[in-house]
Amino acid sequence: MGSLSIWHWLIVLLIVVLVFGTKKLKNIGSDLGSAVKGFKDGMRDGNAAESSTATAQVGQDKAAEKTTIDIDAKTKS
Q1: Residue 50: its pLDDT value, please?
Q2: How far, in Å, CA of 68 to CA of 70, rounded?
Q3: Exposure of 64 in the CB half-sphere (CA atoms within 13 A)
Q4: What gap in Å lies between CA 53 and CA 33, rounded to an integer?
Q5: Handedness of CA 40, 41, 42, 43 (dihedral sign)
Q6: What is the Cα–Cα distance from 49 to 56, expressed in whole angstroms?
């Protein structure tokens, strides 16, 4: 009783199609597909930009090391 058979899933699919209609489901599918494509493109562009900014930050970190002062903070009791 815990698992659903193929007939259960077909009935659920039929109810979903009746409630939303095929045009609405098609629009949802295309919107989801374009969102996934945009996410993949963003991840690809983000990795390329990340590698170029990482090399720029190394140069900035070396310059910042010369002006950084380390101190130990003491708490007032």
Answers
A1: 62
A2: 7
A3: 7
A4: 30
A5: positive
A6: 11
